[in-house]
Amino acid sequence: xxxxxxxxxxxxxxxxxxxxxxxxxxxELDRDPDAIHRHLDVAIVSYLTRMTVPPEYNPDPVVIxxxxxxxTGTLERVVLAEEAAVGDxxxxxxxxxxVMSGVLVDAMGDEQQKKWFYSRxxxxxxxTFFALTEPDxxxxxxxxxxxxxxxxxxxxxxxxxxxxxxxxxxxxxGIVFARTRPGPLGVTAVLIETSAAGFTAEPxxxxxxxxxxxxxxxxxxxxxxADQVLGRHLRATQRGxxxxxxxxxxxxxxxxxxxxxxxxxxxxxxxxxxxxxxxxDRHRLDRLALRLTELRQLIWRSxxxxxxxxxxxxxxxxxxxxxxxxxxxxxxxxxxSCFGPGARLDHPLLDKLARDARGVEFMEGTGNIQxxxxxxxxxxxxxRRD
Length: 386
Fold this sequence. Notes:
Blueprint: H1 6-19, H2 26-31, H3 43-48, E1 62-64, E2 67-69, H4 74-94, H5 99-108, H6 111-123, E3 128-131, E4 147-150, E5 155-166, E6 173-179, E7 187-193, E8 199-203, E9 214-225, H7 240-273, H8 279-307, H9 313-337, H10 343-346, H11 348-360, H12 367-380
Parallel strand pairs: 3-6
Antiparallel strand pairs: 1-2, 4-5, 5-9, 6-7, 8-9
C-alpha cells in the first residue's frame, strides 16, 4: 500500500481546495471552450501556467507548508490531476502551461533550447501542444508522413498535417513530430512557434472534454530554424521514436489520473444528490469506492516508476491508463443509472462527466494500444505479473 509523505499530502490538500473553484465553471466551459480566457486568475489555473518549469528557470514557485512545488515530479502531477479532474477535467485541460511540450523539451532539448522555451513560458500564460497523430495514420509514428527537409544551412521546412491536437489553436509554442528519412531513426521532433507562416490550427467539434479544444493542424511549408530541432546533441536512437515513447510514458499516468478524477466526481455526485440509497445501490457504490482506491494505487505506482526511471515504467503507465479510461466510463454510466431514464437531461453536470469520460479513452493511446504495450512487457519479461 503506497502512502503519500507529508510534503505530498500538503500538496494534495491544497489542490483539493483549489479544485473547489472549478466545479461552478464546468458547464460554462463546456458550452464555450474560449471561456478559459475569462478564468486565468483561478488559483489552480495560475499554478498550471508554470507547472513543470524546473527550479533553475522558475525563481518564484508555489510554496505550501514551507515546501516548494514545481510540478516536475510525476507523482506530484497525478495527485493534482485527480483533484483537479474532480473539480472539472475540461478546465484542467483547457489551462495554459508548458506540460504538453515541456516533457519533450526536457527529454530532448539542449541547454539553449530549454532556456529559450522556459523563458517564453515565464513571460505570460502560454498554451503549448504535442502533435504526433495524423489524419490517415493515427498515432502510428512508424507510418508518419509529415516531413522535415533541409532548406539551406540554417533552416528546415515542415510539411504535412496533424489531427486531434489539444490546445493547438490557442498555443504559441508546440512540438511537432516529422520524418527526415524512411525508417524508425528518421523520426524527429521540432519546437515551433504557431506564428510561423504556413501554420494553421482549426478547432474540431467534440462531444466530451470540450475544454481541450482539439484541433486539426496544417503545416504548409513552415520554416523552422535549425536550432529548434530537438535532440541534435543526442544519439540517433534517442531522438524521434524513443523520445515520443518517453514523452507518452511521462504523460500517461497523468491521463489516468484525469480518468480517476472523473470517476470519483461521478461517485461523489451520487452521494451528494441521491437523497436515499437502497441496499443494492449502496453495494454498487461501495464496490465503486473500492475500485477507485485500487486504481489510485496503480496510478501512484506508475508515477513513482516514471520518476525513478524504472524499466517497467511504461508498462505500468499503460496499465494505469487502460484501467482508468474503463473505470471513468463505467462509473459515470453507473452514476447516471442511479437517477433514472431522464438523468442526462435532469443532471447536466453528470451528463458532462459521462461525455468527458468517453474522451479519456482516446488520450495518449486507446485501450487497445495500452493492452498491446502491456502484452509486450509480459512476453519480453519487462513486467512481472505480481
